[in-house]
Amino acid sequence: MGRFAPSPTGPLHAGSLVAALASWLDARAHAGRWLVRIEDIDTPRCPPGAADFILQQLAACGLHADAPVLWQSQRTAFYAAALAQLRAQGWVYPCRCSRKAIEQALLARGWQPQRHGEKVYPGTCRPPAGTVPAEDAVGELPAAWRLRTLDPQGADLIVTWTDRRLGQAQQNISQTVGDFVLRRADGLWAYQLAVVVDDAAQGVTDVVRGADLADNTPRQCHLQHVLQQPRPRYLHTPLVWAADGQKLSKQTGAAALDLRDPLAALAQAGQTLGLPPLSAPTTADWLAQAVSAWTERWAMR
């Protein structure tokens, strides 16, 4: 079971199509099902109509889901249940630290700011291991909820996983990430919790997505473990780069996918994925050939 899970903060771009195509091809190569999930939990950043436009873009490329689309904005009760489970087990705790307070605490420890560097949470609000947080007191400021990245004995957590393309990887998430947020202080659910809960609920066995999301994998593996959910296989695909050397993304103003010629767009995405040149008169014919090419390269890996 595979899935494509775009955030509807804007239309798909060329890099988005690479991830969508790879996940679709991988599902077909394994005779599996392909799902589409709209990750619209960050509602303030999701303009009206963006999700529907994304679905139209996928359809124009011949990429159709095998089940009704799942909308994360309709699944908040499931995320709340997962948080309650973690809270009962003492894995999460409330944190009222501002970004400024976190940065000041890190600077006091000798932290040197780096562009795009991770601000590892210093554990300011972390209670003793095994503590089950009490209900919020009346009048208390809203709190974010963080997941511990230390084991019950207080030791660092080292996560090892294998990517089908990138190989084996390991990360000490205690030192490189720190306790991370599952629910924000404004009440919105964090990506890490929602994606893990939904992958398990949908029976996703293979996560195929862009390499820019590879650094999320150890956090999600940790969450899968503490929620007692199966770990899917991972394959992180090559990225598409802009002329200025930045990866294409909505944040950097990547142009919407040009679908005046869907076949040409698919061929370009296939080239990024390392598929051989394919000659086909229609998108359906091209996709059929692409499945064979993908099967030969990836189905047994």
UniProtKB/TrEMBL annotation:
Binding-site residues, L-glutamate: R3, F4, A5, P6, S7, E39, Y191, R209
GO biological process, one term: tRNA modification
Binding-site residues, ATP: K250
GO molecular function, one term: glutamate-tRNA ligase activity
Domain Glutamyl/glutaminyl-tRNA synthetase class Ib catalytic: start-end pairs: 3-254
Key words, A-Z: Aminoacyl-tRNA synthetase, ATP-binding, Ligase, Metal-binding, Nucleotide-binding, Protein biosynthesis, Zinc
Domain of life: Bacteria
Motif 'HIGH' region per record, residues: 6-16
Keyword ATP-binding: yes
SUPFAM superfamilies reported in the protein's UniProt record: Nucleotidylyl transferase
Cofactor(s) recorded in Swiss-Prot or TrEMBL: Zn(2+)
Residue window of motif 'KMSKS' region: 247-251
HAMAP family: Glu_Q_tRNA_synth
Family indicated by similarity: Belongs to the class-I aminoacyl-tRNA synthetase family. GluQ subfamily.
PANTHER family (alphabetical): GLUTAMATE--TRNA LIGASE, GLUTAMYL-Q TRNA(ASP) SYNTHETASE
Protein name: Glutamyl-Q tRNA(Asp) synthetase
Gene source species: Vitreoscilla filiformis
Gene that this sequence comes from: gluQ
